[in-house]
Amino acid sequence: MNPLFRKPALLALAALVSMTACAAESAPATRAQAAPAVSAPAKAATAARTPLAQAAGAAKHVAPKKPKLEIADITPMGETTEKVGVGFPIIVTFDRDVRDKAAAEATLQVEAEKPTDGAWRWVSDRKVIYRTKTYWKPHQKVLFSAHLSQLPGNEAAEDVSRRFAVGTANISVVDTRRHVMKTYRDGKLAKRIPISAGRGGLVRNGVDVYLTTSGTHLTMGKKRVETMTSSWMGITDPEDDQYYKEEIPWAVRISDSGEYVHQSAGYYQYLGRSNQSHGCVRATPEGARWFYTIAQRGDVVKITGTKRKLDWRNGWSYWQLNWTQWKQGSALGTDTATAKKG
């Protein structure tokens, strides 16, 4: 039986409605898999002496200025920790609400070895996301910099930067009507995997949560074995006929609402023939393991053939917005910002 995990509290109400029945026992580990906070401590206090104090043999210490705005987190991790897919976003979280978003956004810079147009979009008072117009070119380095010390009154802030490593262009296309997933690597077909997608049939708040969402997903993380349970339905009693708790191998998460590409827990006779899951993309043991092995955060997984549309706020599904829509979320207007050559 294919599971679904509990919706994280941070998702918007619209995304809560779009929950999918392929649930993990633990909450999505976006922050856990992302880099730790990068904000730097305030600069050390500067000791100063006046002639009078020197004469008296006493030192007067000048209290350090505290920055008004710093960065609490950057996703994804740096080049020495992971390689990312060509769809990856740069997610910047500040340590407090940003009052002047335009000024803060103006201090953020992206430089790529293979430049492409990109823009920032604010999704909350503390979080801003950078997405490119088209996918990043593979096999390159991208440098993000934040010059927060340039903000008036924020001179004590530590400027930060992080370099990302873009890996192979992994783009998978899931056809839920033909029950197959095709994975392309750097433009060449590398694998055809028989799959079974969401069967439908469980409507909550007007949404069939047993249907897989159609749209452009990004891989967000993976686990060798993921525990999936019926708790998303409020069923936690092992005596209940609908209760389940299963250990699912080769699980690659593609949304916040519980969708994964993973090994089918049995039911192999349906793979490549019909849709029988609770919303996830079930694959053969060999195919799921192969996909898990190559998966990088930010890889593209396009799903087609269902009536249920993926919400752009569900996980890293930012490619659901077209370029014009995406740029409207910038505090600096809709002019295209280019990722300069590093």
Can you walk through the features of this model?
The protein has 342 residues and is mainly β. It has two domains: 13-29 and 169-317, L,D-transpeptidase catalytic domain-like, CATH 2.40.440; 32-37 and 67-168 and 323-337, Immunoglobulin-like (Sandwich), CATH 2.60.40. The chain is 11% helix and 33% strand. The strands form five sheets. The protein has a nine-stranded mixed β-sheet. It is globular. The model is unreliable at 1-18 and 29-53 (pLDDT under 50). The active site is at residues 262, 280. Keywords: Acyltransferase, Cell shape, Cell wall biogenesis/degradation, Peptidoglycan synthesis, Signal, Transferase. Residues 1-23 form the signal peptide. One of its GO terms (molecular function) is acyltransferase activity.
Keywords:
single chain, 342 residues, mainly beta, L,D-transpeptidase catalytic domain-like, Immunoglobulin-like, nine-stranded mixed β-sheet, 23 strands
User: Beta-strand percentage?
Assistant: 25-35%
**Run of helices and strands:** HHEHEEEEHEEEEEEEEEEEEEEEHEHEE
CATH architecture identity of the largest domain: Beta Barrel
Shape: globular
Number of helices: 6
Low-confidence stretches: 1-18, 29-53
CATH superfamily of the largest domain: L,D-transpeptidase catalytic domain-like
Radius of gyration: 23 Å
For the record, the count of structural domains works out to 2
The strands making up the biggest β-sheet line up spatially as 16-21-11-12-13-20-19-18-17
Q: What does the largest sheet look like? A: 9 strands, mixed
Structural class: mainly beta
CATH topology of the largest domain: L,D-transpeptidase catalytic domain-like
Number of strand segments: 23
